[in-house]
Amino acid sequence: MRYGEKEIKEFDIEKDLELWENKAENDYIIKITLPEFACLCPRSGYPDFATLHLEYIPDKWVVELKAIKIYINSFMYKNISHEASINEIYSVLKDKLKPKWIKLVGEFNPRGNVHTSIECRSDLVVPR
Questions:
Q1: What is the mean pLDDT of residues 60-69?
Q2: What CATH number should be reported for the domain whose range is 3-121?
Q3: Which ranges constitute the DSSP H helices of 1-126?
Q4: Chain segment 29-47, per-residue pLDDT in tens
């Protein structure tokens, strides 16, 4: 196994998602585009592809870019739905970074004439 494959397959969210201290005094938005997201359909096993758009206003922490790249790439071996993958990534980043605000959008490539867009954001509150 090559070192990159090993990093991706053995990625451990608890020890490998590297966070850096945010030393800026100003509020600012970090925008990260991850255009090569892949996961496996839980029903068919076929690959699904998406572009992820992450935006957040950091508080005390920012995510190191190589760490998020490897984390996102670790999904290429998971059988997981569009909805579950975006919600899992959103929840992990929200819990680890504890940002002032965060939004994650997954724009999945069309398959079988269906295009899916999943959006999670911390300012979305829907009353029950």
A1: 97
A2: 3.30.1130.10
A3: 3-9, 13-16, 65-73, 82-97
A4: 999 999 999 999 999 999 9
The per-residue pLDDT for range 66-123, each reduced to its tens digit, is: 999 999 999 999 999 999 999 999 999 999 999 999 999 999 999 889 999 999 999 9
Contact 81, 44 (CB under 8 A): no
For the chain, how many residues are written? 128
User: Is the CB of residue 87 less than 8 Å from the CB of residue 94?
Assistant: no
- Residue 58: phi, psi to the nearest 5? -70, 155
Contacts of 53 (CB under 8 A, 6+ apart): 31, 32, 33, 34, 103, 104, 105, 107
Q: Which are the catalytic amino acids?
A: 41, 48
Give me the residue spans of the domains in the chain. Answer: 3-121
